[in-house]
Inverse folding.
């Protein structure tokens, strides 16, 4: 890791709150403030506030912006309305996933890509290699902070912050607003499976925004939540995590996000490989599973069927909502298609699990 | 953080309480449970299992990960805390009391002298 020990503007605040700090792709981030389970439940029942300033932001502007973005992502943003965001993988020529991102479309000439922190440099380099003269590419990650208000009380909290301005946003819509001296970009997006907002703010106002949100949200039980709860929440919601569930050796088709690959749009990187894969079939497929009884699945556990290894776990945890082990993994295609009886091998013992649809929670 | 005086400790964060001539009760320290976070599962050793000092004999799982628990002394497991099966959070709530793991009949009571005192252990936690 080259940039070890990067800090968000809220680092000292997290430490003062007694957070357990972990190194996440070179960023010192709060893992939990009190307990993962209580922070998780708060997000499910009321609302939690996350510092996710480690996420990267890359702005693409200019006449050629649409063309460039269409070329690098598998999803189609041509049909996307202005001021709306879309989820998409970025693939390499083989269809392997370079990153999974949110594309914010301001208009045909301006986009912001929100990328995973561990991939920011890689994606920036990838895009710059494809750059045409009629676009400007700026990695603005170091100057921008990102906070997420997530949970059923989020809309009420945002109403106290900016009246109807953001409360009226539809899912994946975003807006630029001014609150006091702060210029904010607010989107109705998140990674928890709950209603929620993500707020981009200049680093210089990040701490102020954090304090203001906690103040406005205090009657709605809004409290900080760490990356530990973010992980258990995203798993229950069925969201993939780059580096665990997807990487350059996995294609969107195998990962169960084939809906983000728009073969009908203009040419994009990876199209040929993905078309071939689609035609000839997949060897392995993503599955989400729930333990029948005991056992907590963890990354790299083997998935077995009648004593044969048929796959591997990529993410697993104890689900605080279901109070049982849940996880993601890849298995040989026929086992996924038939939703076969599978076992997860944990410390040498096979524990039965059930292949299920995501989200785990409704 | 709490480091009761009447207990022995290990570098791997178990506590040991002498109960009678050759029996000890074992659990994990308050420092350890705090580092683990919410404990959601404890895999206890079988009764009569023979354990070696420093050998992994139990697994405790928090939301984040699974961790081995090492036996502080050699001997035989003669009792386990069955309450942990349905209430693993006792490890967080009462690590030196209701959150105990197992009782060992020691092979050699002299082994206790190799363990850390509360002062030594507290120092170890602070230097980390």
């Amino acid at each position: 890791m080259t940039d070890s020990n990067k800090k968000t503007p809220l680092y000292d605040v997290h430490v003062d709150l007694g957070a357990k700090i972990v190194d996440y792709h070179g960023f010192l981030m709060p893992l939990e403030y009190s307990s993962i389970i209580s922070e998780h439940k708060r997000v499910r029942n009321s609302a939690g506030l996350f510092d996710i300033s480690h996420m990267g932001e890359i702005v693409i502007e200019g006449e050629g912006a649409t063309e460039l973005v269409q070329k690098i992502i598998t999803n189609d943003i041509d049909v996307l309305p202005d001021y709306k965001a879309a989820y998409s993988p970025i693939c390499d020529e083989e269809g392997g996933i370079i990153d999974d991102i949110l594309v914010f479309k301001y208009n045909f000439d301006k986009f912001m890509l929100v990328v995973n922190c561990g991939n920011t440099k890689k994606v920036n380099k990838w895009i710059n290699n494809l750059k045409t003269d009629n676009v400007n590419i700026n990695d603005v990650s170091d100057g921008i902070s990102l906070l997420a208000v997530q949970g059923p009380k989020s809309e009420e909290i945002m109403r106290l912050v900016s009246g109807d301005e953001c409360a009226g946003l539809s899912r994946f819509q975003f807006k630029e607003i001014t609150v006091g001296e702060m210029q904010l970009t607010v989107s109705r997006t998140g990674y928890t499976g709950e209603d929620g907002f993500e707020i981009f703010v200049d680093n210089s106002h990040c701490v102020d925004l954090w304090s203001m949100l906690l103040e406005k949200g205090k009657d709605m039980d809004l409290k900080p939540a760490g990356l530990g709860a973010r992980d258990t929440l995203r798993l229950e919601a069925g969201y993939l995590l780059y580096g665990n569930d997807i990487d350059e050796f996995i294609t969107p088709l195998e990962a169960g996000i084939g809906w983000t690959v728009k073969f009908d749009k203009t040419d994009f990187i990876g199209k040929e490989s993905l078309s071939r894969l689609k035609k000839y079939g997949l060897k392995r497929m993503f599955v989400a599973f729930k333990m029948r009884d005991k056992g907590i699945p963890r990354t790299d556990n083997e998935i077995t069927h009648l004593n044969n290894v048929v796959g591997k776990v990529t993410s697993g945890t104890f689900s605080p909502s279901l109070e049982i082990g849940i996880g993601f993994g890849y298995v040989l295609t026929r086992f996924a298609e038939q939703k076969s009886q599978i076992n997860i091998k944990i410390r040498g013992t096979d524990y039965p699990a059930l292949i299920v649809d995501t989200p785990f929670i409704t | 953080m709490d480091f009761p005086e009447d207990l022995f400790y290990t570098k791997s964060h178990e506590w040991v309480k002498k109960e009678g001539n050759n029996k000890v009760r074992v659990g994990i320290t308050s420092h350890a449970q705090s580092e683990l976070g919410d404990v959601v599962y404890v895999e206890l050793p079988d009764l009569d299992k023979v354990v070696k000092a420093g050998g992994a004999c139990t697994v405790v799982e928090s939301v984040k990960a699974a961790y081995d628990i090492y036996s502080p002394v050699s001997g035989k497991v003669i009792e386990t805390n069955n309450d942990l099966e349905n209430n693993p959070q006792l490890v967080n709530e009462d690590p030196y009391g209701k959150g105990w793991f197992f009782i060992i009949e020691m092979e050699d009571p002299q082994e206790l002298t190799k363990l850390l005192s509360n002062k030594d252990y507290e120092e170890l936690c602070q230097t980390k």
